[in-house]
Specification:
This is 3-methyl-2-oxobutanoate hydroxymethyltransferase. Its EC number is 2.1.2.11. Its main location: cytoplasm. Catalyzes the reversible reaction in which hydroxymethyl group from 5,10-methylenetetrahydrofolate is transferred onto alpha-ketoisovalerate to form ketopantoate. Its cofactor is Mg(2+). It is a single chain. The protein is of the alpha/beta class and 279 residues long. It has one domain: TIM Barrel. Helix content is 38%, strand content 14%. The chain is built from ten helices and eight strands. Strands 1-2-3-4-5-6-7-8 form an eight-stranded parallel beta barrel, surrounded by seven helices. Helix 2 packs across helix 4, helix 6 packs parallel to helix 7 and helix 7 runs parallel beside helix 8. The longest helix is centred in the C-terminal third of the chain and has 17 residues. The N terminus is likely disordered.
């Protein structure tokens, strides 16, 4: 019998990497979203999300920066702690920021340890094919989610936001996925790769694949939550489907609030306190 039952009657109180692996083994799609704060994390956890990623995409959607490269360990720790504390059930994964693991394996292991202690997260994620580093972090007792395909921390080296794994690069991507699995990664994100190769990798690997712009044959899907729910500004990436228009709701609510403040209809009697005189 499945440890999940029919998903309506039973659900683990806290998802671990073994549960995520079981979902792949049983053919159950894995849902993941980014989160950077306690409020969104709590809402997504209540909705039943499987994985919350505290991504360095916070640089863009929280701090309004043009790229992820400026994120620091302290910033990731602050955001990660907020999410982990607010969402005890989902598997919480925190990105290692750019500059925290590229120098050496020793640097990467130390950064992973510091981030796990500071956040209370369940795992870390790092970008690129780094089997030696993945192996070293796993040996230190920390689960690692790998990230292949388009890797935002390497946007300059990759020539911008370009689909990866096409043509001759197809086999290179396939072999990279095999190597991160062999190194001990418990899952791998496949970003902006052709759906055909993403599906082949997903079938070939024992560990789960989490797609973003990689078609629907991966074992799970992840989106930046502000993109998915219509809070982001400007044009969304092609691979994003907007499931809500939160920005319009907030805009309308703010306009109504301003209007009622100007009209002195807020606060009304029901929203005010009184100190009536005694007879």
């Amino acid at each position: 019998m499945s440890v999940y039952g029919n998903n309506q009657q039973f659900s683990p109180k806290r998802l671990r990497i073994r549960h995520i692996q079981a979902m792949k083994d049983e053919g159950r799609p894995i849902s993941a979203l980014t989160s950077y704060d306690a409020l969104s994390a709590s809402i997504f956890a209540q909705a039943g999300i499987d994985i919350l990623l505290v991504g360095d995409s916070a640089a863009n959607v929280v701090f309004g920066r043009p790229s992820t490269l400026s994120m620091s360990m302290n910033e990731m720790a602050m955001l990660g702690r907020a999410v982990a504390d607010a969402a005890p059930r989902p598997l919480v994964v925190v990105d290692l920021p750019f500059g925290s693991y590229e120098v050496s394996c020793q640097q990467g292991v130390q950064s992973a340890i510091e981030l796990m202690k500071a956040t209370g997260a369940d795992a870390i994620k790092l970008e690129g094919e780094r089997p030696e580093l993945i192996r070293a972090i796993v040996e230190a007792g920390i689960p690692v989610m790998a990230h292949l395909g388009f890797t935002p921390q390497s946007e300059h080296a990759l020539g911008g936001f370009v689909v990866q794994g096409k043509g001759e690069a197809r086999e290179t991507l396939f072999e990279a996925a095999r190597r991160v699995e062999e190194a001990g990664a418990f899952a791998v994100v496949l970003e902006m790769v052709p759906q055909e190769i993403a599906g082949e990798i997903s079938s070939a690997l024992r560990i789960p694949t989490i797609g973003i712009g990689a078609g629907n044959a991966t074992d799970g899907q992840i989106l930046v939550w502000t993109d998915a729910f219509g809070l982001g500004q400007g044009r969304a990436p092609r691979f994003v489907r907007r499931f809500a228009d939160v920005a319009s709701v907030l805009d309308q609510a703010a306009r109504e609030y301003i209007q009622e403040v100007h009209a002195r209809t807020f606060p009304a009697e029901a929203e005010s306190f009184s100190d009536p005189k005694e007879d």
